[in-house]
Structure formats: C-alpha cells, structure tokens
Amino acid sequence: MPVATPVRLRGAYAPVLTPFNPDLSVDTARFIEHCRWLTRQGAGLAIFGTNSEAASVSLDERIALTEAVVEAGIDPATLMPGTGLCALPETVRLTAHAVSLGAPGVLVLPPYYFKSPGEDGLFAYYSEIIERVGDARLALYLYHIPQMSQVPITASLVERLLKRYPDTIAGLKDSSGDWDNTRTMIERFASHPQGFSVFPASESALSRALPIGGAGCISATNNVNPARVRALIDRLEADEATRAAPETAALQAGVDTVRAIFQRLPMIPAMKATLANARDAQSWRVVRPPLQAFDDHAAHDLDTQLKGVGFTVAPLAL
Questions:
Q1: Is 293 a domain residue?
Q2: Residue 184 lies in a domain
Q3: pTM above the 0.85 mark?
Q4: Sheet holding 216-218, edge to edge
Q5: Which of 19, 10, 84, 4 is nearest to 42 (CA)?
Q6: What is the C-alpha radius of gyration for the chain, rounded to an integer number of angstroms?
Q7: Per the structure, how many domains does the chain have?
Q8: Pairing of β 11-14 and β 44-45
C-alpha cells in the first residue's frame, strides 16, 4: 500500500503580536481576540514568532497561551507555533506540547546565541528535537533569520535533514530578505516528494515566489493587513488569467505600500500602535523591555502615513 504524502502548510500566516497589560503581564483575553480576528481574516497563527516578542515571552507563558487559544475554541489546525529556543530540553518540551494540542506544524529557530555552531552541530540539534519528541505527527519548519539568530539555515543542511527525516522536515521560513536565497530554497526543495513549503517573510515576495512553488508568506504585517494578503495569495494560486489580471498587480502594489511603511519603522511598536488606534485600546501599545513603545507623536505620524495611502485595519466584528 502506498504511503500517503504528508500535508504541508500553505497560505498567509501572522507571527501573532503578543499583547501585554500595563504591568507587563500577558493579556490573554486580548491575545485570543486578536487570534480570532486573524483567522476570520484568512490568516494562520504563527504564534511566538519574532514579531510576537517571542524572545521576551517565557516558556510557561507560551505553554499557557497556546492552551488558552485551543481552549477558546480556535482550531489548532490554524497554529504554527514558534518553539525554537537555545536550550534543547525547552525546545523539545514546547514542540511536543504543540504537537499534543494538534498543531500541524512548528516553526523552529536554530539555537541562537551560539557562535558558528557548524552544520554538524545544527544537524544534531534538529535531529535531537525530532528523536526526543518521537511523534509521527511532528512537522518541523526551519526558521532562517540569520540577521537575528546569527545562525544560518543552509541549503546543504536542509538537504541532509530531508534525507534523514523526509516525513518530518516540512518546510522553511526565509526571513533573510535575500530573494536569491528564497528562490534557491524553492527551486531546490519545493518539489520534494514528501513536500516542502518555503515561506518568504514578506508579502512583497508573493508574486515572485508563488509562481515558482512558494507556499505563501509568514509576514509581520499580516497582523494588520491579513485579508488583503490572503486575497493576493488566492489570486496568485488561481488560473493564469487571474494571476495576470491588472487587479492582481494592483493588489500586490497595495500590500507592498503598506508593508513599506511599517518596514521603515520599528515594526513591533508600529503594529501595536496601529492596533491600539484601530481598536481604541491603548494597552495594545505596551511592549516588554528592552523594546520601547511609540509615543503619541510617533503613533500619530504613522496613522497619518497609513491614512495617506488609504489603509485602515479591518474591524474586529465583521
């Protein structure tokens, strides 16, 4: 009997912003509210990504928030939690927990902070995660963000991991900002027999990535603009006439314009200030140190820029 090809994730994912109360504790209710809104807008939930302030959220907080999302009735099939930490036991614990709750994929950073661990060290790190979790349901997505982690995920490492764990190594998020690297990953691995999803980290790459086999995007600005990005992906995955239509190019240009505004700024405080304004909830501005929240002037200037290009955040209730 032939073995079924594993399901690989596709689409628009948001590294979900983590809201905090004024005392810096996690605002669980607002987190769930934002997750619900994102899923209604067509986005998946890459909770505890870089723009989730994941490095500032504790292991216990991540576990509690993931459980709260599922207990709130949000479909665990929408989840792609970030589970990569420096300490291998903590990565294993987070990963196994996400799988146990039904997450169809986890996004795993390499062990950042370590200087040039080498390909053999990284292969051992990912191998240990897979072996220790020991669950056939595990689908592991590699997270390449060398400008932050200082530890690149190379094509040769991907090749080795796919050869050893073809059912488990499911894809890669490329946050390098290097289109040549993204294209190389798509061209080398997207046609793997077991499937391999390559996600650029910006919606600005969608019109280049999807036609050659890209899987969508895991983008910070999906936190504020998810429906338009989802609509662009749908058009790019439709028939040739739809892909080539002027409306598709216009939609790409529109999401590029919004992305460019946020990308010129500290993105986490900027997106939080935008949600604070859109939802009349000033606690959305709160970030955990060492990040700093936008002051009134910066928030007003950002709001003026967004209004100038005709952008508004969709309301919570539709």
A1: no
A2: yes
A3: yes
A4: 44-45, 11-14, 216-218
A5: 10
A6: 19
A7: 1
A8: parallel
pLDDT at 1: 45
CB atoms within 10 A of CB 74: 17
Range of the domain at 79: 11-239
Do the Cβ atoms of 174 and 206 come closer than 8 Å? no
Strand partners, 108: 142
The answer to whether position 251 is within a domain reads no
pLDDT for 85-130, tens place per residue? 999 999 999 999 999 999 999 999 999 888 778 999 999 999 999 9
Low-confidence residues in the chain, pLDDT < 50: 1-2
CATH number of the domain residue 45 falls in: 3.20.20.70
| Cβ(46)–Cβ(80) below 8 Å | yes
Residue ranges in 78-225 assigned as alpha helix (H): 88-100, 118-133, 146-149, 155-164, 179-189, 206-209
Query: Are the CB atoms for 222 and 17 separated by under 8 Å?
Result: no
Reading the block at residue 207, the tokens are 């019109």
Q: Is residue 278 part of a domain?
A: no
What distance in Å separates the CA atoms of residue 273 and residue 71, rounded to the nearest whole number? 28
